């Protein structure tokens, strides 16, 4: 089990205080799960391809105790409290909590009513997996409280069931796996077919580099129809080719439908970029992945058509100011971008990104330096 992150402990103290204030009792424990950045490998997870995320030092913390009723409290969004007699049909932020308990019961890991107080600083709507962090903090809490020893790969599948069947979001398994399985100081190379994984060292400081995360402040939502439409395109392309998933398509396959060809081209070339990134990082050459990041963005923009004016502005401005590579990260249609930058150039790149947004009348981006943090863990 990873050592609790200092920042996670601070968030946990607030969650525990909220639990006491709202429920008049002490929580039985506090569990934290991080948001994530996907270094490269976008929309490949539901095509049984390759991904490469790392955990961010932003966490959702769940303060939890057994109870006679289901009660959910959030310290954000106005400090709402939701009480329910049934796990069916809970909506909004509380739906992610109820959905995890529902999915555990459906998956053969019974849980009884609990009280949960949630505190999180994972940017909401930023494409940094705020919902997965929320769900993963709750699932490790429930597994601990009810004595279920569940492999973390299985936990990720249960959280995916929450997203797909309870919340109605057709997501793959990337976000949950990243929150549950990433380790400090590494990016996680994962094969989404067999869930085999390898922690690959990601030492930015040794190369005099930083990774900037640019939250464009343009909200990103997985439940919107465009995400599902991309997944449907991939499924149709695979059907026409007679393969189980686009990962299995021949490299130079060709379909009559040009849109489906573009979708397929992105998946095939993105998988190649992930494998190339792994090889370069294993050589200790972090700066060498810059061109791959930028190529990934171009593919997501042109072939997969999931970028946005805000994301393109951030990427173009970062590259123009000297970033070694930049790309949108996450599902797209808003959210965040990342930029690999020489540490000395970070202020210049940040200023250029903010200035470009202002010139275009876009929301002011939030820019911060990312590090590869610890995955989900019990805090106290």
From TrEMBL:
The keyword Transmembrane helix does not apply. Residues 96-181 form the GHMP kinase N-terminal domain. Its EC number is 2.7.1.6. GO terms for cellular component: cytosol. It is an enzyme of class 2 (transferase). Signal peptide: none annotated. Residues 281-356 form the GHMP kinase C-terminal domain. Belongs to the GHMP kinase family. GalK subfamily. NCBIfam families: gal_kin. This is Galactokinase. It comes from Glycomyces algeriensis. The gene is galK.
């Amino acid at each position: 089990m990873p050592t609790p992150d200092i920042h996670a402990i601070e968030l946990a103290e607030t969650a525990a205080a909220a639990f006491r204030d709202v429920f008049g009792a002490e929580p039985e424990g506090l569990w934290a799960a991080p948001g994530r950045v996907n270094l490269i490998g976008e929309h490949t997870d539901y095509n049984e391809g390759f991904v490469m995320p790392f955990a961010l030092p932003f966490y959702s913390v769940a303060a939890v105790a057994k109870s006679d009723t289901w009660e959910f409290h959030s310290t954000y969004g106005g400090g709402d409290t939701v009480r329910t007699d049934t796990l069916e049909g809970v909506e909004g932020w509380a739906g992610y909590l109820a959905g995890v308990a529902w999915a555990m019961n459906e998956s053969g890991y019974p849980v009884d009513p609990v009280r949960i107080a949630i505190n999180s600083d994972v940017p909401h709507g930023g494409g940094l997996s705020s919902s997965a962090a929320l769900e993963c903090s709750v699932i490790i809490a429930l597994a601990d409280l009810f004595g279920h020893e569940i492999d973390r790969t299985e936990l990720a599948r249960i959280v995916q069931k929450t997203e797909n069947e309870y919340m109605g979001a057709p997501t793959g398994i990337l976000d949950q796996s990243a929150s549950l399985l990433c380790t400090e100081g590494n990016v996680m190379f994962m094969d989404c077919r067999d869930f085999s994984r390898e922690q690959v060292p990601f030492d930015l400081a040794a190369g005099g580099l930083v990774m900037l995360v640019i939250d464009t402040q343009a909200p990103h939502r997985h439940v919107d129809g465009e995400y599902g439409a991309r997944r449907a395109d991939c499924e149709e392309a695979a059907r026409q080719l007679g393969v189980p998933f686009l990962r299995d398509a021949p490299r130079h396959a060709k379909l009559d439908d040009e849109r489906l060809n573009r979708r397929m081209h992105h998946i095939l070339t993105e998988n190649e970029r992930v494998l190339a990134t792994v090889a370069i990082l294993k050589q200790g050459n972090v700066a060498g992945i810059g061109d791959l990041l930028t190529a990934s963005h171009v593919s997501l923009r042109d072939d997969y058509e999931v970028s946005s004016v805000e994301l393109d502005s951030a990427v173009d401005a970062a590259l123009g100011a000297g970033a070694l590579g930049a790309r949108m990260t996450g599902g797209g249609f808003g959210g965040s971008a990342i930029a690999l930058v020489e540490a000395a150039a970070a202020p210049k790149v940040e200023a250029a990104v903010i200035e470009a947004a202002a010139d275009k009348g876009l929301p002011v981006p939030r820019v911060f330096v990312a590090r590869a943090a610890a995955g989900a863990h019990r805090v106290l």
